[in-house]
């Protein structure tokens, strides 16, 4: 047989346990109570979502603004009026208007949004080196191929995911004067723990023997020249990009209005604003589009009515189910009990 201590109340599942008595009354009140709680919660979430103001600007085919340092291009390139076509030949800058006749109060956040971009594709999702992202720069994972080596040098960060980093440069202007936007404090603290720079040397020395991905236009140690700690693998734009999206149409936080500056302490005042965009990120090749989303945030985040609808739908279904069970119990429950005596 075996040792006697194998036959304990715990091993034989004879310990005291709570066993709910699922009588009709218990089930009915449970369904009804949960449903009546969910419905007002959903209404509150909907009201919070509706209070969020949001402006969506499609700049996929924004008109090119000629620059003094433009290349003198002949042939097909000279006929392009939008940056969507011209950017393949040279640097392209465009401007998009943002009229705010009533202003935008509260915490103002700017997102970029992409359509038809499948970050959740299996091969794209695994094309990275987790140890490299933690600052352990060394042998490259085979998952990074074909973005593992470039001209014989190791690519840091490697992989398709990092190579596709969103790299449009965007400024918000008022009367041709830049509005202060915060570049840090945007990523989640839990995410930041997964991205570390090599320790012991300056960034340009740590990455001296490595190269950036081929699609990048900047060195990894110079992603944010204005903020020393926001460079390398700890750059917040990079960290946010590496957060995979579950859907092909997604938005990611790009900047937050710096409300420590006097005129913008309460948000964006009423007026006409302009986004000046250095158009680098190609999307028309795969049929995608690019958007800028300017929004203020409620206590529950940005504009997203889905959660409110989900709570209301779930609560309504529970209340309806409780009503159906009550009718069934009243009409047939007693007869069933009598037949079982």
Task: Explain what you see.
This protein has 341 residues and is an alpha+beta fold. The chain has 9 helices and 13 strands. It has helices at residues 24-50, 83-86, 122-125, 130-133, 160-163, 189-192, 203-206, 236-241, 306-339, and strands at 54-58, 93-100, 104-105, 108-114, 149-150, 153-154, 169-174, 177-178, 181-182, 250-257, 267-268, 271-278, 290-296. A 5-stranded antiparallel β-sheet has the order 1-13-4-10-9. A 4-stranded antiparallel β-sheet has the order 2-12-7-8, with no helix packed on it. It has a two-stranded antiparallel ribbon with strand order 3-11. Strand 5 and strand 6 (153-154) form a beta hairpin. The longest helix is centred in the C-terminal third of the chain and has 34 residues, at 306-339.
List keywords for this structure.
341 residues, alpha+beta, single chain, four-stranded antiparallel sheet, 13 strands, five-stranded antiparallel sheet, 27% helix
Q: Which blocks of ≥5 consecutive residues have pLDDT under 50?
A: none
Spatial order of strands in the largest sheet? 1-13-4-10-9
Our estimate of the beta-strand percent is 15-25%
Question: What is the tally of beta strands?
Answer: 13
Work out the helicity level.
Answer: 25-40%
Question: How does the SSE layout of this entry go?
Answer:
Elements: H1 24-50, E1 54-58, H2 83-86, E2 93-100, E3 104-105, E4 108-114, H3 122-125, H4 130-133, E5 149-150, E6 153-154, H5 160-163, E7 169-174, E8 177-178, E9 181-182, H6 189-192, H7 203-206, H8 236-241, E10 250-257, E11 267-268, E12 271-278, E13 290-296, H9 306-339
Antiparallel strand pairs: 1-13, 2-12, 3-11, 4-10, 4-13, 5-6, 7-8, 7-12, 9-10
Helix pairs in contact: 1-9
């Amino acid at each position: 047989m075996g040792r006697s201590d194998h036959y304990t109340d715990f091993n034989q599942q004879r310990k005291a346990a709570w066993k709910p008595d699922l009588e009709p009354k218990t089930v009915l009140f449970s369904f009804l109570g949960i449903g009546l709680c969910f419905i007002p919660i959903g209404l509150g979430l909907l009201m919070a979502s509706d209070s969020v103001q949001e402006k969506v600007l499609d700049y996929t085919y924004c008109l090119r603004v000629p620059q003094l340092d433009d290349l003198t291009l002949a042939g097909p390139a000279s006929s392009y009026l939008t940056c969507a076509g011209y950017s393949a030949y040279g640097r392209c800058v465009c401007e998009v208007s943002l009229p705010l006749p009533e202003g935008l109060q509260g915490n103002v956040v700017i997102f970029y949004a992409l359509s038809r971009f499948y970050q959740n594709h299996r091969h794209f999702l695994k094309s990275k080196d987790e140890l490299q992202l933690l600052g352990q720069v060394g042998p490259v994972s085979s998952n990074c191929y074909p973005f593992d080596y470039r001209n014989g040098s190791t690519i840091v960060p490697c992989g398709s995911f990092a190579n596709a980093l969103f790299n449009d440069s965007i400024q918000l202007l008022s009367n041709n004067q830049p509005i202060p936007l915060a570049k840090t404090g945007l990523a989640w603290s839990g995410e930041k723990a997964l991205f570390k720079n090599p320790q012991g040397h300056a960034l340009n020395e740590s990455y001296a023997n490595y190269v950036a991905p081929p699609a990048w236009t900047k060195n990894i140690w110079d992603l944010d020249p204005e903020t020393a700690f926001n460079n390398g693998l700890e750059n917040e734009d990079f960290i946010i990009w590496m957060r995979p999206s579950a859907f092909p149409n997604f938005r990611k936080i790009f900047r937050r209005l710096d409300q420590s500056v006097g005129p913008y302490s309460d948000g964006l005042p009423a007026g006409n604003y302009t986004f000046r965009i250095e158009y680098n990120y190609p999307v028309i090749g795969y049929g995608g589009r690019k958007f800028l989303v300017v929004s203020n945030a409620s206590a529950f985040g940005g504009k997203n009515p889905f959660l409110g609808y989900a709570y209301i739908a779930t609560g309504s279904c529970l209340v309806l189910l409780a009503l159906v069970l009550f009718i069934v119990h009243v009409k047939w429950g007693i007869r069933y009990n009598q037949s079982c005596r």
